[in-house]
Design the sequence.
């Protein structure tokens, strides 16, 4: 104990003798506090913002105008495209068109170069894991056979998660690997992508599912 005190005493004497040092230490401490508060509050703010967006998108998704745009294939970036439900991890989120930073503030977005939900080919959806509602927070907990439901303005379909990882239903890839979202004509697939690990964009986590049923609503 005395050894620890003796090592601190020179620092205390220095601070007492130098007002500028005390001011600098106070400023650094305040800066660190502000940064810590910012880091803790940012996810809370984005999740609150996503909740507000989801409430608006939910209303828009049910509107006749949105149905008409969907049928015409003219859903604009940021507008509601489909609802994704994943019972195994308690996901129920409106997915917007587009995967740009602005669109993904809704939580999840559809890759515009991929087919529309429930259509033939590889439907690709990206979602956040730690911010903006974090709909894909627990995507790594999905197991083979888990159901993923897509509801559109004109019907719905169901997919089942398939095995793609060495020992899991997911795999980790480089963020520059876009082969997983390439189209697969004749093979109706759903690909879910997100950042990995949580809070980092260093890699991507991928889950894939195969179409098992489809239902189109009457016009």
Sequence:
């Amino acid at each position: 104990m005395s050894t620890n005190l003796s090592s601190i005493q020179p620092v205390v004497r220095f601070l007492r003798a130098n007002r500028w040092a005390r001011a600098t230490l106070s400023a650094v401490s305040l800066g660190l506090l502000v940064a810590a508060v910012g880091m803790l509050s940012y996810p809370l703010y984005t999740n609150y913002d996503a909740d507000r967006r989801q409430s608006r998108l939910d209303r828009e998704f049910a509107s006749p105008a949105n149905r008409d745009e969907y049928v015409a294939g003219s859903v604009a970036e940021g507008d509601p495209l489909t609802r994704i439900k994943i019972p195994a991890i308690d996901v129920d989120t409106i997915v917007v068109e587009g995967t740009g930073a602005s669109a993904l503030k809704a939580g999840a977005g559809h890759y515009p170069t991929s087919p529309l939900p429930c259509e033939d080919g590889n439907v690709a959806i990206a979602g956040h894991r730690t911010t903006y509602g974090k709909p894909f927070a627990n995507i790594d907990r999905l197991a083979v056979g888990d159901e993923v439901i897509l509801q559109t303005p004109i019907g719905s379909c169901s997919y089942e998660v398939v095995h793609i990882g060495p020992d899991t239903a997911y795999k980790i890839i480089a963020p520059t690997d876009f082969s997983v979202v390439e189209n697969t004509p004749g093979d109706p697939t759903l690909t879910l992508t997100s950042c990995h690990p949580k809070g980092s964009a260093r890699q991507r986590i991928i889950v894939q599912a195969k179409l098992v049923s489809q239902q189109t609503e009457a016009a």
The CA atoms of residues 129 and 198 lie 6 Å apart. The radius of gyration is 24 Å.
